[in-house]
Amino acid sequence: LYQRVAERVRSWNEQGNCGLVVGANYPAELAQVRALCPDLPLLLPGIGAQHGDLAQAVRAGADSQGERILVNVARGIMYASNGPDFAAAAGQAAERYCRAINEARENRPIP
How far apart are CA 67 and CA 55, in angstroms? Predict the structure, then answer.
């Protein structure tokens, strides 16, 4: 079903304004969606609190240029600390995720 949905969205993308949401927890399926829709942007929830593997998700979801993915990490940043250092901890967590995403983009196999 998810492959049919991806194909349908790809066919609707005449104006370049469509994208897909694909769980980062399922990198094999994510890679299948990327193969079906090489030009669509993908929103990838499931990193952080949901324990999706960030490097696998980025490798599976990024396009041939290492782009067209938006990795969503909400709770992993929002709840980095529940103390008075919340803002600093959230900023540090966001920076760690950003570095990890960029590292995964750089280390992905080139198609």
Answer: 14
What pTM was computed for the model?
Answer: 0.88
Distances, alpha carbon 89 to alpha carbons 7, 55, 70, in Å: 40, 22, 22
Ramachandran class of 62: left when φ > 0, alpha when ψ lies in -120 to 50, beta otherwise: beta
Q: What is the per-residue burial (b if ≥16 Cβ within 10 Å, else e) of 6-33?
A: beebbeeeeeeebebebbbbbbeebbbb
Q: Give the whole-angstrom CA distance, residue 36 versus residue 90.
A: 35
Determine contact, residues 108/58, Cβ cutoff 8 Å.
yes
Q: Tell me the pLDDT tens digit for each residue of 30-83.
A: 999 999 999 999 999 999 778 889 999 999 999 989 899 999 999 999 999 999
